[in-house]
Structures are given as C-alpha cells and as structure tokens.
Amino acid sequence: GAIVMLQEAVDQVRGHSPRTNAPRFVGGIYFWGQGVPVDYPRAMAAFKIGAEAGEARCQHQLGMMYCDGQGVDVDYSQGRTWIEKAAAQDQPNAVGSLGTMYASGKGATSSWRRAREYYQRALELGQSEAVKNMQTLTSGILGVSPLMDKRVEVHGSSRT
C-alpha cells in the first residue's frame, strides 16, 4: 500500500534530491508507529537517507535517536554531529536541542551561557519550547547555575 510506495520513494532518494520529504515521512511512520508497529531501526534507516541528503529535520531526528538510544546504543558524539548539521541550517528544534545539551551536560560540556545562546537563537527561529527552556534554565531546574559560568569566565579572564 501507501507505505510500500513511500519506502520505494525513499530508496529512489539515495544520492538524489536532498529536499524530498519521503525519508522524513517514512521515518516518521516507523518512529511513531503510524499504521505500523514502532520500528526504530527502520525509522533510523529512513532518517539517515534524508540526513545524508542534507534534509535538516532528518538530521535532527537522527541525532536525537542517537542521543536517546532509540534503535542504537546511546552515542552523544554521533547525535551531536547530526544535530549540529541541522542547526547549521537553522532547524529550530536542532538549535534548541543543542541548548539542552549544554544545559544538561549530556553530549556537551555544561555551560549556562552556551545553553542560553542556543535557546535564544531557537526562540528567534520560532521554536515553541524555547521560552519554557529559557525559563527552566534561568530558574536552575536543570542543575546548571548561571553563576557557575560567571565564575569560570572571571577566573579565566584573571589569568590572562
């Protein structure tokens, strides 16, 4: 049926147009189990085709799957690589995800300043969660103190 047709479209994308939506659609069908059982390996395979073709939403989703260990072992390095590629294309959710990596220290060194920069950029790009993430960050809920970065910056600048 329709899923087979979409899968054929994904197979045709390999090495062709980076702007086709087929890999993202097929990946989503398997990732969220829309009409089929959830199948992370198949979702990842579809997202990877789109990601390698340069589709930012596929890059972000693939990166998140690596970070969350969905269909693979957790691999923050691989995850961050794909998320950074999507963020370089101003994909709002990818930019927000980088903020969360810096805020949580998972996949990046904890940095309130860097987290805030990414959350601000995500907000400017229209990411709906950016306001909540900024509020969470400034309230210290994520365990990253705004003062920690200040101490590091002051200490670092006093050496130079």
Question: What's the short story on this structure?
Answer:
The chain is mainly α.
Provide keyphrases for this structure:
elongated, Sel1-like, Sel1_AlgK, 0% strand, 2 domains, mainly alpha, disordered C terminus, TPR-like_helical_dom_sf, 160 residues
What does this structure look like?
The chain is mainly alpha-helical and 160 residues long. The protein has two domains: 1-69, no CATH class; 90-140, no CATH class. It contains nine helices and no strands. It has helices at residues 2-13, 22-32, 40-52, 56-68, 76-88, 92-104, 112-124, 130-139, 146-159. Helix 2 runs antiparallel to helix 3 (40-52) and helix 7 runs antiparallel to helix 8 (130-139). It is elongated. Mean pLDDT is 83; it is low at 144-160.
The chain-level mean pLDDT equals 83
Distance between the termini: 66 Å
Work out the number of β strands.
0
Summing up helix and strand content along with how strands pair, one would put the structural category as: mainly alpha
Element order: H for helix, E for strand: HHHHHHHHH
Total separate domains: 2
- Please describe the biggest sheet, giving its number of strands, its sense, and whether it closes into a barrel: none
Determine the strand fraction and express it as a percent band.
under 5%
Family: Belongs to the sel-1 family.
Pfam families: Sel1
InterPro entries: Sel1-like, Sel1_AlgK, TPR-like_helical_dom_sf
Organism: Florenciella parvula
